[in-house]
Amino acid sequence: SSDNKYFATGCGDKNARIYSFQNNKLTEIISQEHPNWVQGVAFSSDNKYFATGCGDKNARIFKIKYEGEK
Question: Contact at 8 Å (CB) between 26 and 17?
Answer without folding.
Answer: yes
